[in-house]
Amino acid sequence: MAHPDAGPHHLAIVMDGNGRWASKRFLPRLAGHKQGVDTLKRIVRACAQRHIAVLTVFAFSSENWNRPQEEVSGLMDLLAGALAREVSQLKQDGVRLRFVGDRSGLSERVRVGLSRAELDTADNDVLTLNVCFNYGGRWEIAQAAAQLAARGEPITETSLSQAMALGAGPDPDLLIRTGGEFRLSNFLLWQSAYTELYFSPAFWPDFDEQALDQAIAEYHARERRFGKTSAQVTHASVSPV
């Protein structure tokens, strides 16, 4: 395993393929989402063991409301149940929970559950788990701009970054999308400007620690230049401190 300082320090994941995983097994789509929750629990532990400081996952997009009502209702119940069951263990494991997204369309039961989970884990510092729920990248940019405009503040790259719902933390170093699709689907559009992208063919319920390590190994094999030349990056990495 690479040295902890090598990163990634912030990992983002589009957890895609739950429904297709279930359909392949002639199961209801909600069974795939339940399996996906178990996978997330394993990956959260794996990230903590690999010294990843921030994990941001795409759990429910603002476009997912267009899915069948039965599936949406099941997802809401699944979230409420997971909060009730898992928060105490996450607190014990040192995981800080943050929910990012528009809460106005959620039921009072879900909103209360989100706020309580955030409050109960607020002092944890082993890993920050950002769960993007009823979230869209365009929504996040628009609400940040509106917030600045309402305060009469100039809209700059720095001010927008600080006003984002995700906060002014570090941008993702690596973004993984499972399920064999090759798009961002309105996830972290602002923050992913220089993020390394990795697309896995595995459906999310099948994504395991080995698949995570494969993605991290690919990340370590890449050269991150941030607009510089390869020669500049190489020189900086070998220059004496």
What would your notes on this structure say?
By secondary structure, the protein is of the alpha/beta class. Strand 3 (95-100), helix 4 (108-120) and strand 4 (127-135) form a beta-alpha-beta unit. Helix 2 (29-49) runs parallel beside helix 3 (69-92). The chain is built from eight helices and six strands; from the N terminus they run E-H-H-E-H-E-H-E-H-H-E-E-H-H. Strands 3-4-2-1-5-6 form a six-stranded parallel beta sheet, sandwiched between helices. It has a single domain (4-220), classed as Undecaprenyl pyrophosphate synthetase. The chain has helices at residues 18-24, 29-49, 69-92, 108-120, 137-150, 157-163, 209-221, 230-238; strands at 10-14, 54-61, 95-100, 127-135, 174-177, 196-199.
Secondary-structure class: alpha/beta
Q: Percent of residues in helical segments?
A: 40-55%
How much strand content do the residues show?
5-15%
| N-C termini distance | 25 Å
Sheet of most strands = 6 strands, parallel
CATH superfamily: Decaprenyl diphosphate synthase-like
CATH class: Alpha Beta
Q: What is the number of helices?
A: 8
Which fold does the CATH topology refer to? Undecaprenyl pyrophosphate synthetase
Total count of domains = 1
Tell me how many strands there are: 6
Radius of gyration: 18 Å
CATH architecture: 3-Layer(aba) Sandwich
Lateral arrangement of strands in the main beta sheet? 3-4-2-1-5-6
Note the run of SSEs as H and E.
Answer: EHHEHEHEHHEEHH
What best-fitting shape do the alpha-carbon axes yield?
Answer: globular
Q: Which blocks of ≥5 consecutive residues have pLDDT under 50?
A: none
